[in-house]
Amino acid sequence: MVNNSILKAEILSQALPYIQKYNNKIVVIKYGGNAMINEELKMNVITDVVLLSEIGVKVILVHGGGPEINGTLKKIGKESKFINGLRYTDEETIDVVQMVLAGKTNKDLVKLIMQKGGNATGISGIDNMLIEAEKYESEDDLGYVGAVKEIHPNIIMDMLDKGYIPVIASVGMDKDGHTYNINADTAAAEIASAVGAENMILVSDIPGLLEDKDDENTLLPLVHVYEVNSLMNKGIISGGMIPKVDCCVRAIRQNVKKAVIIDGRIPHSILIEMLSKDGIGTMFKR
Predict the structure, then answer these.
(1) CA distance from start to end of the chain
(2) I need a labelling partner for 133 at 20 to 30 A (CA). Which of 4, 164, 191, 275 fits?
(3) Beta partners for 201?
């Protein structure tokens, strides 16, 4: 029992410089996809978010919710359709996206944070036009899929100043009142840039960037922005990793100090990343 207590005390003491580093700094955490399905892992993520808030970190939680959207569409007899990895979003689908993300998923996360003793307020990119969107332009018409035109961060800065954790659903709107489905990684990167975040963390269901996608032992722990084009040319950054890496690079080029892709399947991966020397996943820096 005494040895266990000593070990816990040592772990806390080793975390002290990182606690001091992040005190009163803004960290944007993007949470979504399959990492939201497992209830035990979801509680680990929520516990990490609350703990960081309690030690003085200003946490912004940006979330998606693809699996819940798929489930709701299936219940109403509508097939999920994807084009080049992006959800085709017609008028009926955008209504479902808004209902699920800004409604059920958002409020479920707020409730979990409150149950863990945190203070949270759930909003979407529509509120106070936080995420001003425009139609995403591509060769194929994707319907109401949006690109971020501008972030208006006043509402979340006010929430942070009052001690709340903003929980943000990744939908936005244009000045004509049209709602758009926004990629949650993109939303997190643009919000992190707009608020001058110290760190942006993408919680995913992959270990990070692998030299060999079939071998988790080939994890690249650190990638500098100037190396990204070379890694793309070699095929190391490919497929679904391309948009995630693009978001990390864009955030860093817009003055976010660092961006990290971590594995949300590992218990307390957020704390490991932020409060330890070696961290976890793949970090992108200048």
Answers:
(1) 44
(2) 164
(3) 29, 260
Domains in the chain with CATH codes: 22-285 (3.40.1160.10)
pTM: 0.93
Cα(80)–Cα(279) distance, integer angstroms = 36
Q: How far apart are CA 113 and CA 47, in angstroms?
A: 8
Q: Find out whether 186 and 168 touch, Cβ atoms under 8 Å.
A: no
Q: What is the pLDDT of residue 40?
A: 82
Residues 50-103 have pLDDT tens digits of 999 999 999 999 999 888 898 999 999 998 888 877 788 999 999 999 999 999
Contact 255/280 with Cβ under 8 angstroms?
Answer: no
- The radius of gyration computed from the CA coordinates of the chain, to the nearest angstrom, equals 19
